[in-house]
Amino acid sequence: MMLRNLELAFIRLHILYHSGKEEVFGMGLMEELARHGYTIGPGTLYPILSKMEKEHLLSCKTRTVAHKQRKYYRITAAGESLLEKMKAKIKELYMEVVEK
Ligand SMILES: [Zn+2]
Q1: pLDDT-based confidence at 54, cuts 50/70/90?
Q2: Which of 19, 27, 38, 66 is a plausible cystine mate for 75, CB 3.0–4.6 Å?
Q3: For all residues of the chain together, what is the average pLDDT?
Q4: Mind listing the domains of the chain with CATH numbers?
Q5: pTM for this predicted structure
Q6: How far apart are the CA of 86 and the centre of ligand 1, in A?
Q7: Ligand 1 centroid to 14 CA: how many Å?
């Protein structure tokens, strides 16, 4: 389960990053994360998105697409400042663990 915990932290960082580039939604994120080698289903992803919304890291808008309600997420100012802090930490970790 330790691997999963670490992966979930990376997944949250991906969500922060992509929601800063454009609006994101569950299905789209699942495809994007699969491309990076992360397997994540709606039962795991959707609770993460609502938790990040409750933490004010993401804002959410519901729109109707092809007669279906879809939730779109965008990064908030708080999310952006967290992402900036994490970028420094990601860089430091990368330099120590990968670059050597
Ligand atoms: Zn990504």
Answers
A1: very high
A2: 19
A3: 95
A4: 2-99 (1.10.10.10)
A5: 0.91
A6: 15
A7: 5
